[in-house]
Each structure stands twice: as C-alpha cells, then as structure tokens.
C-alpha cells in the first residue's frame, strides 16, 4: 500500500482496536489525516453489534513508525457537524449483556450475542433485535437531556419534550451520522429531564491515539475502563499485566482540542492512529460519565519520532489551557528571575517548558501514581522530583473520573532533550 500525503478516513471499527487486522489507510511521515468521526459513547452503547462502547475510525498506518517510536499528532482543526445530540447518566439493563454491557451485549429473548438491531419509533424501547424484535438496548438513561446547537456552534440549549421528539424522529439528520456508521443515534431516546440549560461549546477529542499491541475494546483502552477487562468472561478478557499493552487513547481530557499536540507511544508497526468520540463540551472529570457526543470533521498532522519509547501519551496543551503555575515565563518574569538569582548568587537558571504526562489507573490515586512514574522513567529521575516540580511549577488535574489525570510541570530543556522533544515543545509554545 502506497503512503499518501493526505488520507481521508470515513470508515470505522466494530468497537475493537485489533492489531491483527490489516490497516486500510497509510499516511506519510509528516502527512495529514482528515476524518469524519462518529459520535462516541451513547450511540455505540445502544448498538450491541458494536463491541467496544465507541465507534472510532479505522487505524491509519504511519510510514516509518515502528514499535518503540512515538507519533506526534498535531490537532489542526476540529469542526462539529451535528446540530443536536443527547446524553446523560447511564444505567445498565440486566439480562441484556453477559459480563460487560459495553462489549458483550445480547438479546434477552433469543440470546443472540451482539445482535444487529433496527429502530422502531422513539424512546428508550426503540432499539430492537433484528432477529426477534425484542428491546435489546444494554443501557438506559437515569437523568438525561437533548441539546441543540446554534448555527455558529458556540452555544447549546437543552430542549423540552416536543422539541426532543422532533429531533428523535429525524435522528441521523440532526446527529449528522456518517454514512458508514452503524450506530443507533442516541437522540432517538428523546430525553428531556433538563430543559432550558445553556452551555458553551468547546469541542475536543475523547479518543485519539495509537493501536495497542493486543485486541482491546476501544472505550477500554485506558487504565480505568480497562479494569473491566481483567478476568472478564468474554473474548477480550485479559490479565492485569496484559492491560499494560494499552495505549491510553481513550482519555476524555478536554484539553485534547484544536491547537494541542499529543505524543503517542507506538506499540505496533505503523502506529495505527485512530480518532473519535468528539465531545461538544465537558468539564474536568466528565463526572456524569458521559457528555455531548457529536459527529465532526477532524484534521490531524502526524510526525514520527524515532526511538522515543514512551509508556503513555504526553500532551502539549494550548497555552490558554495550562495550569497557572505551568505557563511559560514572560520576558518580564525572566528578568525578575535574573535579578533574584543575582541577589542570591545563583549562577544558572533553568530553561523550562510545560509538559503534561497522562496517567491512568483503576482510580484517581492509581492514575496519579501512574502519571508520576511515567514522567520519572521518561526523564530518568525519581518520582519525588516529579512530585516537587508538579507541586510548585504545575498541577495534577482530573481528565476523567474515575481514573485519568494529567501530571503537568515546567520541565528543564535538558530533560526534554533526553526524549528528543525539546524542539517540538519549544516550537509549540513559542508559536
């Protein structure tokens, strides 16, 4: 397969990131990926034929990327195409899955595993087994809403019953579901528990990363949701050690947005870059478990870093999103620091730039420990030093509850040189 300067991706996985499947797209080192992404969580969650809780793009082979390298992904543009969506808290439905409602849905009547479905009417009983006609959705809402966006995609408004039902009757139109997607649009449920709430849009990518070295359901490609796979009774069950083969592409960190850069570990030949689960907005933590999943158009630029063996993703947020203590110093601040150094006879000041290490784990404590350890091993320093630096020049921030965090701190340039990202980081923050 010949690598292209730009690849256009509009096909999707069945919910599983499988390194054993041949990659259908190949992009040059330094090339671009343009993708039409499907909505994330809720649509796939009510489509039991999907086996991962999401419906991400098929992975892209990046020319020159080998295991032990890293792929730099520049998020150049994110455009929301949906004009409405729906979301809310979830509740699994007993009898409609075997061990994990995200992965192994089944029909409670005929017993078909991961059954194909069709939509009959609207509401939470509308998803039906194609074989026997039974209600098969593995999840229902506890408290939920339908939200419409303005034409500028700057604001969202939650809708009353009549408006929500209007959206539900023309679901794929309002969701702008891509043609190759098989998910059932979540607006079909027409939820309307919240009415008249106004929210600002700030779209970002809940899924962005590289393919793990073993088959993993896409929404479980992280240290928190991945816990559901440990000793699971379905085809994708694994051990705690095998979970370390994940690449943490499912981050739900709201700073993974237009203008940011994410540096991803490569664990299979070609890297296998995939994207999806675009959200219209989300506060830190995604505490409701879900937010406003939307369709969209994404433009990414990818570069290979040879021999940069990372344990997990490293994020370079846009400067506006950095914690106050981690923002690059202004010229005025640098002059102040020089005067202070002269007063106290400090011969050399650190030249430093902000970096965020992603940590994931079973809970926020485990995720924090994971992020601290990843940073320490990357730079060849000890964890207490990372703790000190992230305390006085950075922050620990929740990406997703229960177990995704960012460990951010101002990092000396000579540390960045160790993992060959010094020029990348300098250019990003001088831009």
TrEMBL record:
One of its GO terms (molecular function) is hydrolase activity, acting on carbon-nitrogen (but not peptide) bonds, in linear amides. It holds the Pfam family FmdA_AmdA. This is Acetamidase.
